[in-house]
Amino acid sequence: MIDSILWGLPAVAVVFAATTAALRRAPAHGFRRLLAVNALVVSAALALSALLVLGVVEPAQAATTTSATHPGAWAALLGAGIAVAGSTIGAGFAVAYTGAAALASVSEKPEMFGRSLVIVGLAEGIAIYGLVVAIILIGKA
Question: What is the DSSP letter of 112?
Fold first, then answer.
């Protein structure tokens, strides 16, 4: 796992640097390009997921013992990934709306800060629920 992280860090750094440069050079065009690249990555991930579900492509096996003892373990891992992705996207939308409303209410009534913080915290909890579901699914895999 550490090897995967070490191999992935340079790629993340390059993508971050390229994105920052594109957004600084032309913010409107850079943002459109960034959206296009994200749409391409999402469509590729959905296509790969569809191919895995339909059985056209066999999932890569991490170890032979895992594939021998649990032939359907990839489905639990795919479900864990979907749980984390869905809950994170949902939490992002929830925090966006509740955060904006919280800032508006705190600007009018500063004493509402504590209540607003609790509401935004509850919205962030959605991502934690997805992570818990993913841990449960991976434990069953």
Answer: G
Kindly list the distances between the CA atom of residue 134 and the CA atoms of 85, 121, 123, in Å, as whole numbers in the listed order: 10, 20, 18
The angle at the Cα of 65, spanning 61 to 66, to the nearest 5 degrees, equals 50
Domains in the chain: ranges and CATH:
1-57 (no CATH), 64-141 (1.20.20.10)
pLDDT digits (tens, 9 = 90+) for 67-94: 445 667 788 888 899 999 999 999 999 9
Residue showing tokens 């489905």: 75
CA nearest 84: which of 127, 21, 22, 35?
127
| Dihedral angle over CA of 86, 134, 19, 35, nearest 10 | -20
Question: What contacts 70, CB < 8 A, 6 or more positions away?
Answer: 141
At residue 43, the 3 state secondary structure works out as: helix
The pTM for the full model equals: 0.50
Radius of gyration of the chain (CA): 20
